[in-house]
Amino acid sequence: MGLIVQYSRYLFFTASIFLILINRNTVRSLIKNTKFYLTIALILVLFISASINKTDVAAVFQLALYMLYPFLLFASWSWRIAQTEDVCRGLTYGLNILVLLNLLIMILMPQGLFQTISSDTVSRYYLFGAKNQMVAPVMTCLFFNIEFAYRRYKKVTKSALFMFFICAIELYIGGSGTGLIVLFAFIILVILQLKNRNANSNMALVVLIISFASIVIFRVQNIFSFIIVGVLHKSLTLSDRTYIWDTAFESIRKNPIIGTGITESLSGNVHLKLNYLTKDIFAHDIYLDYLLMGGIPALCIFIVLIISVKRSYEKLINVRYQTFIWWGVVIYLFASIVEIYTTNYCLFLMFAYMGILEQSIRKNHLVRG
């Protein structure tokens, strides 16, 4: 089952290319999509870094599949009137099926599809992985449920609330504390937007920067040791993440311009070698990971891509169109300060969706609300 899920991306990618080839209008859509060009540029930087560092170039192509296929697939529909709503509906139903299937596996196979043991901790792997690995697909499912409900019915529907509880149950059973925190943070942002008290998108980016600097660089969590250790009985190393970040910073200082390149990893992330672990481990921070994968150029392109998505959101707000996917992106990036999700396609899925919404504004295809 796990292999089927992993290699299904090749089927999606092939199907999207086929749709591109049979419809010339989709090419026009891609040509006008700035986010698509930025993604191509990011992939090229990662490829150059891997080539210079003589690391796993094949992993770059694997990561490219995650990044590109949403843009290619959505371009097949975005040129037609009202098709962006169909895209939203299809994503919502598809993600719902996967999330419900993941819950079914959790119920029927409580020990997971397989298990791993690390530092005396047993991790149970389900359809979406184990613990925090489930956050990306589960939360993306919730993002699109809220998006489709409001776009179609101008309110949060019973089915969206049902999926909210399903997502919460899965994160709880899976043991993802990070997932539960970001789930409720997203709900707060949704409530604010429904009450026409939209949080400032610029301030959201400032909060992300401050949070990254505070947690990863300055380790502000040490100030609250009496709560973290004394009350919550957690380690100030955040499950050894501070050691991992220190190792990442050391590697970045040695190769700030081109990074260290992508190493052997199915997800296309960087694996760091730590003295106290028998296996390699990734950076547990998406921003450090891009610095490692492609140096400063890769991180800069990624940041410009985020800003491009933010501008798409602002254009939608200017025409009084409500979308919740931008806040899904913000929540995803916030969670990525302390974690790396092998399902990176979820983030680029949202990037691509915001891109076709912006194109729909130009064609006046969106219903304002």
From TrEMBL:
Query: Membrane-spanning residues where?
Result: 6-24, 36-53, 59-79, 91-114, 134-150, 162-192, 204-232, 287-309, 324-353
Asked if the record carries the keyword Lipid biosynthesis, the reply is no
Domain (O-antigen ligase-related) ranges: 162-303
Q: Pfam families per the record?
A: Wzy_C (PF04932)
Compartments annotated for it: namely: Membrane
- Membrane topology recorded in Swiss-Prot or TrEMBL: Multi-pass membrane protein
Keyword terms of this UniProt record: Ligase, Membrane, Transmembrane, Transmembrane helix
Per UniProt, what is one GO molecular function of this protein?
Answer: ligase activity
Going by the entry's taxonomy, the superkingdom of the source organism is recorded as Bacteria
Q: Which InterPro entries match?
A: O-antigen_ligase-rel_domated, WaaL-like
Q: What is the official name of this protein in its record?
A: O-antigen ligase family protein
